[in-house]
Amino acid sequence: MQLIGESLNVMSKKIGKALKERDPAPIQEEVKDQEARGMDYIDINLGPAKKDGTELMPWVVKTVQEVTELPLALDTSNIDAIAEGLKVYKATAQPPLINSIMARPERYEKMLPIAAEYNADFIALMWGPEGLPRDENERAALCVELLYAANEAGIANEKIWVDGIVTPVNIQQEQLVSLMNFYMMLQDIAPGAKSTCGLSNISNGPPAYLRPILNQTYMVMLERYGMYSVISDPLDEKLTAIAKGKHPEIVDVIQKAMDEPVDASQYEKELADYVKTVDVILGRKLYSDSWLEL
């Protein structure tokens, strides 16, 4: 599982201040920490970056590449800022990653030529003209439309990372199963395409202490259906360890619970909590903040 570190984010007080002041030290410290923690890509998330994005993105790219050879994901809704960042991008072992291109003509018609010009991979975000797809079939239709346009622009499926959009478990529980169904279909729809997601979206809303078990469990569930990468929290050491194959016992119990209902009481608490979390994600039990206590 490839991990894209999510913490170089304008929403962080420390990083936001550093970006505003053009202070490289906190940014480079964050990058080195993410690399030491096992991240495979560094996501540079500037948010909308409407005011000064075209100057800020290339500055951040240069600042980050002074201290790492990891590939970067350029993450902003400012299309011109993406292009300016790619202009100064120093070649890495893997191509840069544009995060992201929506399945909306007004976005992809402008952004696909940029990806093609700079030989960049891109995240294909299944957010269409009507917003979030209602089910796996709508996701599939958007995927076919966007990948067809990318192929017409000379971009191969292998350079496209499909993001079907993870939703919060506490308000859109049923969408989590639909997303897994979509990823089961992906190689039939787009042979050779990669996949990714904003993993922590699943736990956006539940209490902070419940976020790691939700993120870890869903990552394993998605990986079973071919998930290639996730955008993840570098500080979650357990999640990183699971992603890198260091906890096969956790993977085994999650997959067993996916196949059929399992009596959680037969396991020690750590593994039992993963079983209970699978039941919530699959909709066997309704979500509540106390699901681990039941």
TrEMBL record:
<dbReference type="InterPro" id="IPR050554">
    <property type="entry name" value="Met_Synthase/Corrinoid"/>
</dbReference>
<keyword id="KW-0489">Methyltransferase</keyword>
<comment type="similarity">
    <text>Belongs to the vitamin-B12 dependent methionine synthase family.</text>
</comment>
<dbReference type="GO" id="GO:0008705">
    <property type="term" value="F:methionine synthase activity"/>
</dbReference>
<dbReference type="GO" id="GO:0042558">
    <property type="term" value="P:pteridine-containing compound metabolic process"/>
</dbReference>
<keyword id="KW-0808">Transferase</keyword>
<feature type="domain" description="Pterin-binding">
    <location>
        <begin position="1"/>
        <end position="263"/>
    </location>
</feature>
<dbReference type="GO" id="GO:0005829">
    <property type="term" value="C:cytosol"/>
</dbReference>
<dbReference type="InterPro" id="IPR000489">
    <property type="entry name" value="Pterin-binding_dom"/>
</dbReference>
<dbReference type="GO" id="GO:0032259">
    <property type="term" value="P:methylation"/>
</dbReference>
<dbReference type="InterPro" id="IPR011005">
    <property type="entry name" value="Dihydropteroate_synth-like_sf"/>
</dbReference>
<protein>
    <submittedName>
        <fullName>5-methyltetrahydrofolate corrinoid/iron sulfur protein methyltransferase</fullName>
        <ecNumber>2.1.1.258</ecNumber>
    </submittedName>
</protein>
<dbReference type="GO" id="GO:0102036">
    <property type="term" value="F:methyltetrahydrofolate:corrinoid/iron-sulfur protein methyltransferase activity"/>
</dbReference>
<dbReference type="Pfam" id="PF00809">
    <property type="entry name" value="Pterin_bind"/>
</dbReference>
